[in-house]
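Consider the tokenized backbone below.
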């Protein structure tokens, strides 16, 4: 008796539909006994659709299950379904295996028979069983599995999504063989670029050397263009979430600062003008900084694949430094224009550069590279990412302030120092820290608190998984 049956558990199951056998335990899809190459994420998508075939699955639930570790565009699911239909021999919008449910999602509709996943001989198609539909690609795949993917990779009319799908399939079949069979012509540089770029997303993919077959100036230019396009899409999708996360952290810092300030001075609940002012200044400063740093981190995920953490540090620093320098100039102009006084010393490019680098380091250490998008951990993994990123930013902020530079609180104090009637009195934090005035210890502690909240808010925004609206079409 099998071990599973002896303990009363259900033996492993597989699914048979048409001429295909799908095995969850072997993680394979077979057609007439021959394995159909699918990248792991698309195999997960097929398994989900088959296992939940009694219902039409919403797009959001599919994203949450199959792309649970990464933020991707809506087109990722569309491309995944298109790939599965092609692997199953369906043409057009399908309907034989996978049905598109308008403004909702997808459903697997082909009749399925469940059977025990024990007897290897049963993987062979039962005699006389006919597939419900065939486009002829299965025969091509049986004789030369590389041919369809190579054709799609090099075809002039193929989209970026189709080329990436083909490149991923070729890595599954064999990277060395795929490189050796790249043909000449105008499409070869793009074919090499997609093979080079996609190798990071496929476990077991072989190397695609910069000086190997198919490489050259045109191929390198095609690779650069591919990554720049993806970087622009990723930055456009993630900078707003990062900015909102930073703005919320700035609002929280302002609120908590106002409450503590009033409490330490014995004033009870802080006056409304104080909370209003801090509630506007904090989100504005932190939101702008997070937009710059978040854009740099998103660009790093798309542009550089070999040294992820280093790229996150460098481009996070670049984004933070650029926004810090621009914000400093804008703040200088506003202070001089509205208050007719020389601009005080405010945080600027150096502070933004250091905090951006720290955010990139924390985010890189606490998240893993995600295939096809930006990492989006969930549950405790997301909390850990926020804490680690917040900790690295807190350390960087403390070092900056200890060195005499200024962050948000010190900059705010510098602005209001010339107004004797101001209710912003950061000196209230000094006595508990053993200082009689706003000295280096107070500045350092407040800076560390700002850095902690900023880094945690930035990471929370970057890892936020957007809710998608259902839409028609596939």
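A designed sequence for it:
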């Amino acid at each position: 008796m099998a071990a599973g049956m002896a303990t009363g558990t259900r033996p492993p199951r597989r699914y048979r539909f048409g001429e295909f056998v799908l095995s969850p335990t072997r993680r394979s899809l077979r057609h007439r006994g021959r394995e159909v190459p699918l990248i792991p994420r698309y195999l997960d998508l097929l398994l989900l659709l088959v296992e939940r075939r009694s219902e039409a699955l919403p797009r959001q639930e599919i994203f949450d299950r199959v792309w649970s570790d990464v933020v991707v565009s809506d087109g990722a699911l569309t491309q995944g379904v298109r790939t599965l239909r092609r692997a199953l021999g369906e043409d057009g919008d399908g309907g034989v295996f996978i049905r598109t449910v308008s403004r909702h999602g997808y459903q697997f509709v082909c009749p399925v028979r469940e059977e025990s996943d024990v007897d290897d001989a049963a993987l062979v198609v039962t005699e006389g069983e006919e597939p419900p539909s065939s486009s002829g690609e299965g025969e091509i795949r049986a004789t030369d599995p590389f041919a369809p993917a190579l054709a799609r990779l090099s075809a002039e009319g193929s989209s970026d999504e189709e080329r990436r799908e083909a490149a991923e399939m070729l890595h599954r079949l064999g990277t060395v063989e795929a490189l050796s069979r790249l043909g000449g012509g105008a499409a070869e540089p793009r074919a090499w670029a997609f093979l080079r770029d996609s190798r990071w997303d496929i476990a077991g993919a072989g190397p695609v050397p910069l000086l190997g077959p198919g490489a050259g100036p045109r191929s390198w230019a095609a690779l650069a263009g591919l990554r720049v396009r993806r970087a622009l899409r990723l930055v456009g999708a993630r900078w707003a979430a990062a900015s909102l996360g930073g703005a919320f952290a700035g609002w929280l810092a302002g609120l908590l600062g106002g409450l503590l300030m009033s409490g330490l001075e014995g004033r009870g609940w802080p006056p409304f003008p104080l909370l209003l002012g801090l509630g506007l200044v904090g989100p504005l400063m932190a939101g702008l900084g997070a937009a710059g740093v978040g854009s740099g981190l998103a660009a790093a995920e798309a542009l550089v694949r070999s040294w992820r953490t280093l790229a996150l540090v460098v481009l996070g620093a670049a984004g933070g430094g650029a926004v810090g320098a621009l914000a400093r100039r804008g703040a200088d102009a506003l202070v001089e224009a509205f208050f007719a006084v020389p601009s005080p010393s405010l945080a600027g490019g150096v502070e933004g550069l250091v905090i951006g680098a720290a955010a990139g380091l924390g985010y890189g250490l606490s998240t893993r590279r995600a295939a096809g998008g930006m990492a989006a951990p969930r549950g405790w993994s997301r909390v850990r990412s926020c804490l680690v990123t917040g900790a690295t930013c807190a350390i960087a902020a403390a070092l900056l302030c200890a060195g005499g530079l200024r962050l948000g609180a010190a900059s705010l104090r510098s602005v209001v120092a010339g107004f004797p009637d101001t209710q912003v009195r950061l000196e209230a934090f000094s006595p508990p820290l053993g200082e009689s005035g706003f000295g280096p210890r107070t500045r350092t502690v407040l800076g560390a608190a700002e850095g902690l909240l900023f880094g945690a808010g930035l990471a929370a925004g970057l890892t936020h998984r957007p809710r998608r609206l259902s839409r028609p079409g596939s």
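Confidence is low (pLDDT under 50) at residues 1-8, 121-142, 470-474.
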